[in-house]
Each structure stands twice: as structure tokens, then as C-alpha cells.
Amino acid sequence: MALKCIIKDEEAVSISIGFILMFAITVIVFTGVMISFYSLSRNIEKSAMEESFKILGSGLANKIATVDTLVNVSSSFGATVESIEYEFRLPSTIAGNTYSINLTNTTHEIILEADNGAIVGSPFSVSNNFTERKFYGGAEDYIITYNKNDNNIYIDEQ
Amino acid sequence: MDLIEDNNAQFMLLAGFLIGIGLVITTVMLNSIMFEGNMAIESVTENSKYEMINLMQITTDEIRSAYRNSTEKGGTVQNATINFTQQVYNFSADLPKIYSMYGGGAKITFENWTNKGYANFTENGRPGGKDNWTIVENVNVNYLSIFNFTINLTGLIFRIEARNSTGYPVWSVVFNETKYNVSNATYPANYTIGDFTNGSKVNLSDSKYLFKNSVSSSPTVSIHIIYGSNAFGTYKIEGETITRHFTRERHYVLNTTIALSTAKVKANISMPVSVPW
Lengths: 158, 277
Hints:
Helix content of chain B: 25-40%
Radius of gyration of chain A: 29 Å
Shape of chain B: elongated
Number of helices of chain B: 5
Radius of gyration of chain B: 34 Å
Number of strands of chain A: 8
Oligomer: heterodimer
Largest sheet of chain B: 7 strands, antiparallel
């Protein structure tokens, strides 16, 4: 009998109670979303940095390969490269964080790393000598050069 | 008024549902805005290496073409150099205009062969160039029509070799300060042809050099220079490879410099160009 009453009862709450309920539910849900959004944003920041590192790493590998190819192609023409300068710019921060760039000579890998744990390695290939370097962020302008005397490719801050 | 006075929950549920949807949409939008805002976008397209290859190739072709155009007609050396200079000058003057259309810059400098000595027999003609190198591969010996060298020795020995398809030397001629020898697989090693005179023209297809006899068992050979920095002079080899006609000829090596600049890359290259081919 009581169940029948509940089913047939079409009355809900009054406007006032409805508003209070709605407001309370909204506040609770919004607070929950904001809390989860904060933790989510931390993950997004890291994901965004890793994606950016992949783009920057492959771009840098491409630039080094360009200089290396120019030297090799010139050699195939019997020519001597007197100088090559490849200027490029990298962002000083990504997602508001600085990062380091480590160009290793042993494994021929560009390792981009940030304090929040984002780390990405991009392989690069050179047939000439290459001097390894590590940059700790902050710089924006870089230059890749080739020295014919020691047949070496260098990368430096400008 | 009916809506306000309605105590049923439909309006509240509908409003709650709309707010929920709104929150989800806002969250997703903020999410993507934040992700995109953090991304470092960079273009990785870089064409300077192709431009440089292209520039080196057209410069080489143009200088060789100018040399052949000016020398094959005959006439005085003075007129030939004037014609050569005019053609290459026109090319070098037009080059910056063409590259400026693409936002870059290109400049070449060149020399002519007046008062210029013969080049070393290294790969690029320079004294420090590659000593041991291949002039031509897959030569059909039965169709080798010209095989001439003019040799000036500056070191102890200078050698020209023919190798079969496996890389084994089947014939070679060695020039030293006093004589020239032929060594091969068929005849005794160090077979002495005669006395060598510096600056003399040598026709290696002549029967006394035993070239065709030595390589008849392997008619397809590659021709190599060994110790090229020990001598300088000219050469001409003409004939057929397995697939096509070829000419390899060097009178001089003309020094050329190429400067290319794009938005990001600046390169200076010095390139020796062997002429006429």
C-alpha cells in the first residue's frame, strides 16, 4: 500500500527546497570537478611537455642531420665545407617549466627532461664527429656549426 | 506563473541535467585549451640541404658546359677564356635573383684556367684529395675507344688499375721516375714496358700495355687510380659501360666557391670542378 502511494505520488519538493538542493548539488559537483581538474592538470602539463619534447627532439635531430648531410654531400662533390651555420630557436619554457637538453655522443640521443618528471629521448644520427653538450634551459637561440679542421659538428647557445 | 508554482521535480531535474552537461563540456574544453596552450609547436621542414645539392650540381654543370662551349670550337686561348668567363658570369649574376624569389641568397665565385697548372690525379684534383679512387665502373673493355693519360710524376710511383667485378686487380700499370711496368694475372709480374718520360702522353689501349689481353677473361672492369697525389696531368677515357656510353676527361680543376643563405642556414663551400667532364 505504501509502495503504491510512492509510485502514484507526483508531488516533489517545493521551489525553495528544489533550489537549495540544486545549489548544493552544483556546489558539490563543481568542487569535485575542480579538485579532480587540479590533479588532472598536473598530468596534462606533463603529457603536454612530453609531447612537446618529442616534437622538439625530432626537430633538433633533423637539424643536426641537415648539417651532417650538407657536409657529406659536399664531400661527394669533392668540395670542402668552409663553414655552416644553422641558427634555430627553442622555447625557454614549456608549460611554464624550464627543461634541460642533453645531447649524448655515446648513444647519439637527445634527452629532454623537466623537473616534473617529463623525459623524452630522441635518437639522432651523424657520420661526422659530434661534440656532446648539455643545456639547462633558459636559452632560446642556438646555433649548429661545422668545423672543417677537426671535422666536428658543434651545437652552442647564442 | 504555472512554471513557478509547479512543485513537480521535472524543472529541477532538467536544470540539474543541463548544469551537469555544462560542467562536462567546460571541463573538456579547459582540458584541451590547457593541453594546446602548453604545447611547443615547431616546424621541422628544412629544405636547405636540397637547395645546396641543387646549387652544387647546377654550378658544376654550368662550368663544365661553359668550358666545353668555349674550347671545343677552337680558336685562341684568350677568346676561349673570354667566352667561358662571359657564360659563367651570366650564370652567377642570375643566380642571386632566382634565389631571392624564395627568400634566400646564393653567390658563386669562379676562376678560369689561364696560368693554371694541371690538377693532381686525386679524386677532386687537389693535392690533399682522395688518393685511391675509381674513375669509372662497369667498363666494357671491347668498346673502350680512348684510354689516354698525360702524367707528370711528383712522387715515387703512380698506378692505374683495372679490377674485375669481384674487385680483384686483373691489370695495372705502374709509373716510377725511370720506367713503367705492367703487372697482371696473365703475364709475368713487373713486365717492363720501357722508360718513362715525365709529361709524356701515354695511350694505355696500345697493345704494348697488354691491357686488352690481360682483361679479356673478365671484359667488364672498373678503372682505378692509386697514389693519385703522386702525379698530376690530364686524362681521357671514353667507351661503353654495360648500359651506356661514357666519357671521363680532365684537363683542369677550376676552384669555385658557393655561398648559400636561407632564413636559418648559412653555408660556404669551396668546390673544385673538373673540366671538361
